[in-house]
């Protein structure tokens, strides 16, 4: 007898796989954003260049202001990516929990089926053995 919830278990495994892929994508986006953020922080923390004129000083100031603005945007995006990764992690955990519950039910079912099959086989062997004993006792009486 097959596991009656096998279709549901396959569905749960698919859901778990999809949740795992979503988690991997969310983690990847988070890592990419963190790398970009670190790169901008390094550029902002770079040494002061020798400023030869007021125009160069203004250009450096504008570039730093732009970088700081970009960094603020990346930090906001990073928070969003962290939240998405946390939600994806929770979804994966929930999907895994649902799969595990059904897997345990399947294991119990398989064990019950195996026990029933062994019991049936043992009963058949016992019946064969008792029939052979009865025949041999009957054959001895004929001698």
From TrEMBL:
Principal subcellular localisation of the protein: membrane
Keyword Protein transport: yes
Entry annotated with the keyword Translocase: no
Pfam families: FliJ (PF02050)
Protein family membership: Belongs to the FliJ family.
Compartments (UniProt record): Cell membrane
Membrane topology: Peripheral membrane protein
Protein name, UniProt field: Flagellar FliJ protein
Keywords: Bacterial flagellum biogenesis, Bacterial flagellum protein export, Cell membrane, Chemotaxis, Membrane, Protein transport, Transport
The organism of origin for this protein: Leifsonia kafniensis
Origin: domain of life: Bacteria
InterPro entries: Flag_assembly_chemotaxis_eff, Flagell_FliJ
